[in-house]
C-alpha cells in the first residue's frame, strides 16, 4: 500500500503561482509513476500532468503546458507541481496519484484507470 498526502493548495490571484507537493509513504521502495489530476466543481476529474518513476519523462495536458511543471525528488518520496500564470479556470481540487511501474523509467500514464493509489486532494482557488 502507498499513502499519498497533498499539500500546498490555497487561494491565489490570477497570474500568481503555487507549488503543490505530494508526499508518499508506505510501500515506496518499488518504482512508481506519479500523476496529478484535478476536478473542478460540476466537472469530471481530468488529467493535469504525469512523471515517470525515473523522472526522465513528463507529460502535460494541453491546458497547462508551458505553465505547470511536474517534478519529483525520490529521496524525499515527494512529487511537486509548480503552477505559474494561474487562471481562474485552474480552480479545482488537485489530486496526486501513484502506480507501480516496471521496465523503463520513462513511461508516463495519463488515464485515471492506470493509477491504483490516490491522495485526498488539495483545493486550489484562483481569483480573477
In short:
The chain is 0% helix and 51% strand.
What does this structure look like?
It is a single chain. The chain is mainly β and 128 residues long. It has no helices and eleven strands. It has strands at 2-7, 10-13, 18-26, 32-39, 46-51, 58-60, 68-73, 78-83, 92-100, 117-118, 122-127.
Count of helical stretches = 0
Find the structural class using helix and strand composition. mainly beta
Order of helices and strands: EEEEEEEEEEE
- Terminal Cα separation, in Å? 40 Å
Show the helix and strand layout.
Elements: E1 2-7, E2 10-13, E3 18-26, E4 32-39, E5 46-51, E6 58-60, E7 68-73, E8 78-83, E9 92-100, E10 117-118, E11 122-127
Parallel strand pairs: 2-11
Antiparallel strand pairs: 1-3, 3-8, 4-5, 4-9, 5-6, 7-8, 9-10, 9-11
What are the key terms here?
128 residues; mainly beta; seven-stranded mixed beta sheet; 51% strand; globular
Amino acid at each position: 500500500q502507498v499513502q499519498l498526502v497533498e499539500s500546498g493548495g490555497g487561494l491565489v490571484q490570477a497570474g500568481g503561482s503555487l507549488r503543490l507537493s505530494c508526499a508518499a509513504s508506505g510501500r515506496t521502495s518499488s518504482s512508481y509513476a506519479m500523476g496529478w489530476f484535478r476536478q473542478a466543481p460540476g466537472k469530471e476529474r481530468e488529467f493535469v500532468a504525469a512523471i515517470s518513476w525515473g523522472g526522465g519523462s513528463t507529460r502535460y495536458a494541453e491546458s497547462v503546458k508551458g505553465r505547470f511543471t511536474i517534478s519529483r525528488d525520490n529521496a524525499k518520496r515527494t512529487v511537486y507541481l509548480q503552477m505559474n500564470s494561474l487562471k481562474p479556470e485552474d480552480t479545482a481540487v488537485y489530486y496526486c496519484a501513484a502506480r507501480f511501474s516496471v521496465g523503463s523509467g520513462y513511461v508516463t500514464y495519463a488515464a485515471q484507470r492506470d493509477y491504483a493509489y490516490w491522495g485526498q486532494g488539495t483545493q486550489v482557488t484562483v481569483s480573477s
